[in-house]
Amino acid sequence: MGYALIPLLVLSVAFSLTVNAQRETLRVLGPDSRADAAAEMRALQAEVFAAACVAAAQAQIGVASDGIAVAWPAGMVALAGATCATRTDGTGRLVYAGVPTLPGVAGVMLDRLNGSALWSTVRVAGTAQPLVGGQPTTVPTLFAAGTLIYQSRVAK
């Protein structure tokens, strides 16, 4: 009669070992997984904000300002510290959309956008380094170090 319980005992031990292994894996990978998810989310927020910033700048013809109001799409919460600014430049305007960065965001942006040269990281106020490399560019000093910045040109 006791032999009938052996399969149940084997299944219980196997289940217990599997659950403990999964728990250990989640404990070890947990912070990395959360950091990766945060980087993915911030990259998405940066892309959405950049598109909304350019649209807002195009809607406000001729305006050069450090604080262009940007309407976020429905369902997205405005990101604290996100800044949209424009500067006159010859026959057009430069549009700058900046969001605070997180570790890993630059890599996500490079992968997602196939190495777009329009994205930079502000190293020191007033200077940004393109994510794809190359020469540093001048940006408005209102963007603090550590800001992920998108730069585009629109008609006046």
Describe the structure.
It comes from Burkholderia contaminans. This is Pilus assembly protein PilM. The protein is α+β, with helices and mostly antiparallel strands and 156 residues long. The protein has one domain (37-155): Beta-Lactamase. Helices cover 40% and strands 24% of the residues. The protein is built from two helices and six strands, in the order αββαββββ. It has a six-stranded antiparallel sheet, with helices on one face. A hairpin with a 2-residue loop joins strand 3 (119-124) and strand 4 (127-130). It starts with 5 loop residues before the first helix and ends with a strand.
Write the SSE topology:
Layout: H1 6-59, E1 83-89, E2 92-100, H2 105-112, E3 119-124, E4 127-130, E5 137-138, E6 147-155
Antiparallel strand pairs: 1-2, 2-6, 3-4, 3-6, 4-5
Helix pairs in contact: 1-2
Q: What is the overall silhouette?
A: elongated
Named at the architecture level, the CATH assignment is 2-Layer Sandwich
- How many structural domains in the coordinates? 1
Helix content: 25-40%
Number of helices: 2
Kindly estimate the percentage of residues that lie in beta strands according to DSSP: 15-25%
Highest CATH level, the class: Alpha Beta
Helix and strand pattern: HEEHEEEE
Name the features.
156 residues, alpha+beta, Beta-Lactamase, six-stranded antiparallel β-sheet, 6 strands, 40% helix
In short:
This is Pilus assembly protein PilM. By secondary structure, this protein is α+β, with helices and mostly antiparallel strands.
